[in-house]
Hints:
The complex is a heterodimer. By secondary structure, chain A is an alpha+beta fold. Chain A has helices at residues 26-41, 60-69, 72-77, 80-94, 100-112, 124-136, 212-215, 238-243, and strands spanning 141-142, 155-158, 177-183, 187-188, 205-210, 224-231, 235-237. In chain A, the strands form 2 sheets. Chain A has a 5-stranded antiparallel beta sheet. A two-stranded antiparallel sheet of chain A has the order 1-4. Chain B has helices at residues 11-28, 36-46, 50-62, 64-72, 74-80, 118-121, 126-129, 131-136, 141-147, 184-188, and strands spanning 95-99, 104-109, 157-162, 168-172. In chain B, the strands form 2 sheets. A two-stranded parallel ribbon of chain B has the order 1-4. A two-stranded parallel ribbon of chain B has the order 2-3. In chain B, helix 4 (64-72) packs across helix 5. The relative contact order of chain B is 0.15. Strand 6 of chain A pairs parallel with strand 3 (157-162) of chain B, so a sheet runs across the interface. Chain A: Residues 1-119 form the Nitrile hydratase beta subunit-like N-terminal domain. Chain A: One of its GO terms (molecular function) is nitrile hydratase activity.
Amino acid sequence: MKLQHHLGGLEGLGPVWTETRVFVEPWETRIFGIHTAMMALSSQLPLPATPSAFDTIWTWADLRKGAEGINPFDYFKYRYYEKWLGGISGYFIEKGYITAEELDALTEVYYADPDKALPGGGAAAIDERIIQYLVEGDSPKRDVPVGDVLSVGDKVFIKNVPTIEHTRLPGFLRNKVGTVETVYEGAYTYLCDTGPDGIGTPMPVYCVAFDPQELWPGNAEANFILYADLYSAYVLPADVAEAA
Amino acid sequence: MTDRFKYREDREAYSAARVRALEALLIQKGILTDKSVDTVLGYFETKMGPFNGAKIVARAWVDPEFKARLVADTPAAVAELDLPAGMAGAEGEHMRAVANDPGVHNLIICTLCSCYPWPVLGLPPYWYKDPTFRSRAAREPRAVLAEFGVDVPESQQIKVWDSSAQIRWFVVPERPAGTESLSESELEALVTPESMMGVALAKAA
């Protein structure tokens, strides 16, 4: 179990941080830009080939796996883009694009001289593809038959699937019962196969309504409803679950 | 015990140097160009941002039929407006709007990460990405909203939407009272990213 999969409902955390800025330090803009460029150049996308030396896959799933894999104390300790910087640097080292030694050495150089210029150059086609990705996106919708789907109003039981590295099933919904609010049209893949957790192939997705008093009996506020979008691999019709 | 509970004294200077070193290496090795990062950042300054969401909300305020279409089929309604290309692009492929009314206040969260509708709202503010917000808003949204200065009466139902699959959500806040004489472009100026995620109300200037 990873705490990062079970954040919803966690107690004892103190006041929220109401900071409305997107970036609180100028350096954070750079790691955001690097991440988004990597997503645009990721090798699985059906976009034009470029001269970029980047030839592996980088998606939100990779970024999320990194954040979900770190020590939960560090997850709360570090700001959002500090975690990105650690995860993305680690990816480039792990995949052999750069070495830890050269990153450390060059960090010292820029630490000593923060105004030292960046290198220049690069093919325009790389940046054209980045724009194309932002404009076109990467829809997970797939045109495949979906078979039997649930209906609005159906009661569903949320499975406690054997998640290992990554999931899109929030922990606080596991083993709970909800009601289908929306059946999204068609079928949706996920960015990677999550193995025994169960998503990755095209499947229906439902918006499911939950009564917070059933999620946290006697310990949730009154007069609200919590909705979550859930892949069909995570839900069972409640009558089927009861019979099993 | 390690220094897990301490930060480097030069925390920000070190991260600034490290991200610059990383960008330099990626340019040197032909992965990115010297313009790639600025290309991304420029795009979010001019094409994808909360200025688009503000136009959508202002139109919904002046045109109730548009508002009904926006809630029923968000992508189709957004496509009616003269917005930059890419409103169904990255992180906007499948969007859904929910509208506040006197009986219901909507709040968007992402308990697993920080899913956010880039084309219409740009990038998520820090409050949205913070683990404390993501944890608490699921169980005690009224207390969380009070910390943002929004008092939702017990009689008004709160709907919390957790962005855990493909949908990127946003809120159509209520039009503030006393704005009947304002033009659509004047109304746009009243719409903040926070009001379009549910932690603020739109207010008359």
